[in-house]
Amino acid sequence: MSDANLSLRDLLARQYSFLLDQLSRRLRSTELAQEALHDTYLRLERGKEVGEVHNPVGYLFRVAINAAIDHRRLNRRLLTFLEIDGAFDLPDDAPDPAREVEARSEMNAFQSALSSMPKRRQAIFLAYFSEGLAIKEIAKRFGLSNRMIDLEIRKARDHCAAILNDNRKKSFRSQPPSDV
User: Fold this and answer.
1) Per-residue exposure over 81-100, b if at least 16 CB sit within 10 Å of its own CB, e if not
2) Mean per-residue pLDDT for 103-130?
3) Which domains does the chain have, with CATH numbers?
4) Structure letter (DSSP) for residue 180
5) Other CB atoms within 10 Å distance of the CB of residue 40
6) Phi-psi region of 48 (alpha: psi -120 to 50; beta: other; left: phi over 0)
7) What are the tens digits of pLDDT across the range 90-113?
Protein backbone atom coordinates (compact mmCIF):
# COMPACT_ATOMS: atom_id res chain seq x y z
CA MET A 1 0.00 0.00 0.00
CA SER A 2 1.36 3.41 -0.93
CA ASP A 3 2.02 6.24 1.50
CA ALA A 4 -0.83 8.24 -0.09
CA ASN A 5 -3.29 5.39 0.50
CA LEU A 6 -2.06 5.00 4.07
CA SER A 7 -2.39 8.70 4.84
CA LEU A 8 -5.87 8.82 3.24
CA ARG A 9 -6.94 5.82 5.33
CA ASP A 10 -5.65 7.49 8.49
CA LEU A 11 -7.42 10.73 7.55
CA LEU A 12 -10.64 8.77 7.03
CA ALA A 13 -10.33 7.30 10.52
CA ARG A 14 -9.66 10.74 12.07
CA GLN A 15 -12.41 12.55 10.11
CA TYR A 16 -14.93 9.69 10.27
CA SER A 17 -17.54 11.61 12.32
CA PHE A 18 -17.33 14.67 10.10
CA LEU A 19 -17.54 12.62 6.89
CA LEU A 20 -20.40 10.50 8.28
CA ASP A 21 -22.35 13.62 9.18
CA GLN A 22 -21.81 15.21 5.74
CA LEU A 23 -22.61 12.01 3.85
CA SER A 24 -25.69 11.29 5.96
CA ARG A 25 -27.10 14.70 5.06
CA ARG A 26 -26.19 14.35 1.40
CA LEU A 27 -27.46 10.77 1.03
CA ARG A 28 -30.36 11.20 3.49
CA SER A 29 -29.41 7.91 5.10
CA THR A 30 -26.98 7.30 7.94
CA GLU A 31 -26.88 3.58 7.16
CA LEU A 32 -25.94 4.19 3.53
CA ALA A 33 -23.32 6.74 4.61
CA GLN A 34 -21.76 4.19 7.00
CA GLU A 35 -21.65 1.55 4.26
CA ALA A 36 -20.14 4.05 1.83
CA LEU A 37 -17.40 5.02 4.29
CA HIS A 38 -16.69 1.36 4.99
CA ASP A 39 -16.39 0.69 1.24
CA THR A 40 -14.12 3.73 0.92
CA TYR A 41 -11.82 2.33 3.60
CA LEU A 42 -11.71 -1.04 1.83
CA ARG A 43 -11.05 0.58 -1.54
CA LEU A 44 -8.11 2.49 -0.08
CA GLU A 45 -6.72 -0.66 1.50
CA ARG A 46 -7.20 -2.98 -1.49
CA GLY A 47 -7.34 -0.59 -4.39
CA LYS A 48 -4.71 0.73 -6.69
CA GLU A 49 -2.25 3.28 -5.44
CA VAL A 50 -3.43 6.84 -5.31
CA GLY A 51 -1.13 9.61 -6.41
CA GLU A 52 -0.86 13.01 -4.81
CA VAL A 53 -4.24 14.40 -3.70
CA HIS A 54 -4.70 18.17 -3.34
CA ASN A 55 -7.91 18.01 -1.27
CA PRO A 56 -7.83 14.75 0.74
CA VAL A 57 -11.15 15.28 2.57
CA GLY A 58 -12.88 16.16 -0.70
CA TYR A 59 -11.31 13.11 -2.32
CA LEU A 60 -12.58 10.83 0.47
CA PHE A 61 -16.02 12.40 0.22
CA ARG A 62 -16.14 11.81 -3.57
CA VAL A 63 -14.98 8.18 -3.21
CA ALA A 64 -17.66 7.62 -0.54
CA ILE A 65 -20.36 9.21 -2.76
CA ASN A 66 -19.33 6.91 -5.63
CA ALA A 67 -19.45 3.91 -3.29
CA ALA A 68 -22.98 4.91 -2.21
CA ILE A 69 -24.07 5.24 -5.85
CA ASP A 70 -22.68 1.77 -6.58
CA HIS A 71 -24.47 0.40 -3.54
CA ARG A 72 -27.81 1.92 -4.63
CA ARG A 73 -27.41 0.51 -8.14
CA LEU A 74 -26.74 -2.92 -6.72
CA ASN A 75 -29.78 -2.72 -4.46
CA ARG A 76 -32.00 -1.66 -7.35
CA ARG A 77 -31.13 -4.88 -9.15
CA LEU A 78 -31.93 -7.03 -6.13
CA LEU A 79 -35.47 -7.90 -5.11
CA THR A 80 -36.75 -6.52 -1.83
CA PHE A 81 -38.06 -8.79 0.92
CA LEU A 82 -41.63 -7.74 0.08
CA GLU A 83 -41.12 -8.58 -3.61
CA ILE A 84 -39.74 -11.99 -2.73
CA ASP A 85 -42.51 -12.62 -0.22
CA GLY A 86 -45.11 -11.55 -2.80
CA ALA A 87 -43.72 -14.01 -5.32
CA PHE A 88 -44.75 -16.86 -3.04
CA ASP A 89 -48.35 -15.67 -3.23
CA LEU A 90 -48.52 -15.84 -7.03
CA PRO A 91 -51.11 -18.33 -8.24
CA ASP A 92 -49.89 -21.51 -9.85
CA ASP A 93 -51.12 -21.51 -13.44
CA ALA A 94 -50.22 -25.15 -14.00
CA PRO A 95 -53.36 -27.21 -14.38
CA ASP A 96 -54.19 -29.49 -11.50
CA PRO A 97 -55.11 -33.14 -12.21
CA ALA A 98 -58.85 -32.33 -12.28
CA ARG A 99 -58.34 -29.64 -14.89
CA GLU A 100 -56.21 -31.98 -16.99
CA VAL A 101 -58.94 -34.64 -16.90
CA GLU A 102 -61.55 -32.02 -17.81
CA ALA A 103 -59.46 -30.72 -20.72
CA ARG A 104 -58.83 -34.25 -21.97
CA SER A 105 -62.56 -34.97 -21.75
CA GLU A 106 -63.39 -31.83 -23.74
CA MET A 107 -60.80 -32.68 -26.38
CA ASN A 108 -62.23 -36.19 -26.74
CA ALA A 109 -65.75 -34.74 -27.01
CA PHE A 110 -64.60 -32.29 -29.69
CA GLN A 111 -62.88 -35.04 -31.68
CA SER A 112 -66.04 -37.14 -31.40
CA ALA A 113 -68.14 -34.19 -32.62
CA LEU A 114 -65.79 -33.61 -35.51
CA SER A 115 -65.74 -37.25 -36.60
CA SER A 116 -69.55 -37.52 -36.44
CA MET A 117 -69.99 -34.74 -39.05
CA PRO A 118 -70.36 -35.42 -42.75
CA LYS A 119 -66.91 -35.47 -44.40
CA ARG A 120 -67.50 -32.35 -46.52
CA ARG A 121 -68.70 -30.31 -43.50
CA GLN A 122 -65.76 -31.57 -41.50
CA ALA A 123 -63.31 -30.53 -44.25
CA ILE A 124 -64.94 -27.08 -44.58
CA PHE A 125 -64.88 -26.59 -40.80
CA LEU A 126 -61.19 -27.53 -40.59
CA ALA A 127 -60.29 -25.35 -43.57
CA TYR A 128 -61.92 -22.39 -41.87
CA PHE A 129 -60.79 -22.88 -38.25
CA SER A 130 -57.53 -24.82 -38.58
CA GLU A 131 -56.12 -23.50 -41.83
CA GLY A 132 -57.61 -20.02 -41.36
CA LEU A 133 -58.84 -19.81 -44.96
CA ALA A 134 -61.37 -17.16 -45.94
CA ILE A 135 -64.88 -18.20 -46.94
CA LYS A 136 -64.18 -17.18 -50.57
CA GLU A 137 -61.12 -19.45 -50.73
CA ILE A 138 -63.03 -22.38 -49.24
CA ALA A 139 -65.91 -21.82 -51.65
CA LYS A 140 -63.49 -21.90 -54.56
CA ARG A 141 -61.81 -25.08 -53.23
CA PHE A 142 -65.13 -26.96 -52.84
CA GLY A 143 -66.95 -25.42 -55.81
CA LEU A 144 -69.74 -24.04 -53.59
CA SER A 145 -71.21 -20.60 -53.01
CA ASN A 146 -70.04 -18.36 -50.19
CA ARG A 147 -73.47 -18.64 -48.61
CA MET A 148 -73.31 -22.45 -48.64
CA ILE A 149 -69.84 -22.41 -47.03
CA ASP A 150 -71.10 -20.01 -44.35
CA LEU A 151 -74.07 -22.30 -43.68
CA GLU A 152 -71.82 -25.39 -43.40
CA ILE A 153 -69.50 -23.60 -40.96
CA ARG A 154 -72.45 -22.55 -38.79
CA LYS A 155 -73.88 -26.09 -38.77
CA ALA A 156 -70.47 -27.55 -37.85
CA ARG A 157 -69.95 -24.96 -35.10
CA ASP A 158 -73.44 -25.54 -33.65
CA HIS A 159 -72.92 -29.31 -33.79
CA CYS A 160 -69.60 -29.08 -31.90
CA ALA A 161 -71.05 -26.64 -29.35
CA ALA A 162 -74.01 -28.96 -28.64
CA ILE A 163 -71.76 -31.97 -28.07
CA LEU A 164 -69.36 -29.99 -25.87
CA ASN A 165 -72.28 -28.66 -23.81
CA ASP A 166 -73.63 -32.19 -23.35
CA ASN A 167 -70.16 -33.32 -22.27
CA ARG A 168 -69.91 -30.50 -19.69
CA LYS A 169 -73.35 -31.36 -18.29
CA LYS A 170 -72.33 -35.01 -17.95
CA SER A 171 -69.06 -34.18 -16.21
CA PHE A 172 -70.85 -31.70 -13.92
CA ARG A 173 -73.34 -34.37 -12.87
CA SER A 174 -70.57 -36.87 -12.19
CA GLN A 175 -68.73 -34.56 -9.77
CA PRO A 176 -69.30 -35.18 -6.08
CA PRO A 177 -71.02 -32.32 -4.21
CA SER A 178 -68.65 -29.97 -2.45
CA ASP A 179 -68.98 -29.12 1.21
CA VAL A 180 -69.39 -25.37 1.42
Assistant:
1) eeeeeeeeeeeeeeeeeeee
2) 92
3) 3-87 (no CATH), 97-174 (1.10.10.10)
4) -
5) 26
6) beta
7) 676 777 788 888 888 889 999 999
